[in-house]
Design brief:
- The protein is mainly α.
- It has one domain: Orthogonal Bundle (MetI-like fold).
- It has helices at about 1-10, 15-40, 55-60, 65-95, 100-115, 120-130, 135-140, 155-165, 165-175, 180-190, 195-225, 225-230, 240-250, 255-280, and strands at about 45, 45-50.
- Strands 1-2 form a two-stranded antiparallel ribbon.
- Helix 4 runs parallel beside helix 8 (about 155-165) and helix 9 (about 165-175) runs antiparallel to helix 11.
Length: about 290
């Protein structure tokens, strides 16, 4: 009764939405607006010169030193996201075919890396991937090592995949669980092979969930800090490390705001593009 009245008279929901909107404005919109405003002012030894307006902070991002950081961040994020997209369907399909108890344990295992502090995870990967770590020790036993798995992009990718995989897995797993099992059976009775059932039935119907998960995964990869810092090193600086250095070490808040705005715009474009792809790819009624 109450919900139907709110739908017919939306203004009745305003008292319930105002606290949330105020919270979002104070902790999300205002800091972003402040970063955008700061990015349009020059930085001086005395601080931000609010009396002048400039786009020089954005032009600095095109400098090879900073552009290389942005490109490296996008490359690492894209690689982790691509590998996650290849792994997610085999894992999700196998999980949905388990019994309820085993399925719950499997989901808990996939989520568990996110429950561990990021710094602890980074230190754990350090113990595994360093030249004298467990991975290289095992590779040495079979004559395949040691490999250089730290202080490069390889170690960062290896550590980010399990850490952020759940953001792709959970939406796809939930979408698969929500499908009628009779869909696959019906496609099979019409002559579709297992591959045909997947590509022509399961994949299109779960594509929006996949794209949403990949977008979140990509965003989490671009904002990772502890793992790139400890496993990639200063020579493989990423955007999050650059933001830390510019804002908290150099105290160049206008340039830091420009970096934040550029990454935010790229993220919004990524989300918008993913939504468009999902809308166009999902089969629907034709006029």
């Amino acid at each position: 009764m109450l919900s139907s009245r709110m739908r017919s008279e939306p203004w009745r929901a305003a008292p319930f939405l105002l606290p949330l909107l105020a919270l979002l404005a104070a902790w999300f919109v205002w800091p972003l607006a402040q970063a955008l405003t700061n990015s349009l002012h020059p930085n001086t030894p005395q601080g931000i010169d609010a009396g002048q307006w400039t786009l020089a902070n954005y032009a600095r991002i095109a400098d090879p030193l900073y552009a290389g950081v942005v490109v490296r961040t996008l490359r690492i994020s894209a690689l982790v996201t691509a590998i996650s997209s290849l792994l997610v369907y085999p894992v999700a399909l196998a999980t949905t075919r388990l019994g309820p108890r085993r399925e719950a344990l499997a989901i808990l295992a996939y989520v568990s890396p996110w429950l561990v502090n990021t710094l602890v995870k980074a230190l754990g990967w350090n113990l595994l991937l360093r030249p004298t770590g467990l991975v290289n020790a095992a590779l040495g036993e079979i004559g395949a090592g040691p490999l250089r798995l730290m202080l490069n992009e390889t170690g960062v990718v290896i550590a980010l995949i399990p850490g952020h995989f759940m953001f792709v897995l959970l939406p796809v797993w939930a979408a698969l669980k929500g499908l009628d099992p009779a869909l696959g059976w019906a496609a099979g009775t019409l002559g579709a092979s297992r591959a045909g059932v997947f590509w022509r039935v399961l994949f299109p119907l779960t594509l929006p969930a996949l794209i949403a998960g990949l977008a979140i995964n990509f965003i989490m990869n671009t904002t990772a800090f502890a793992i790139p810092m400890l496993l990639g090193g200063l020579r493989n600086e990423t955007a999050s490390m650059l933001a830390y250095r510019v804002n908290l070490v150099m105290l160049d808040w206008p340039f830091g705001g420009a970096v934040a705005v550029v990454l935010l715009v790229f993220t919004l474009l990524l989300v918008w593009g993913g939504q468009r792809i999902a809308t166009l790819a999902v089969p629907g009624p034709r006029a």
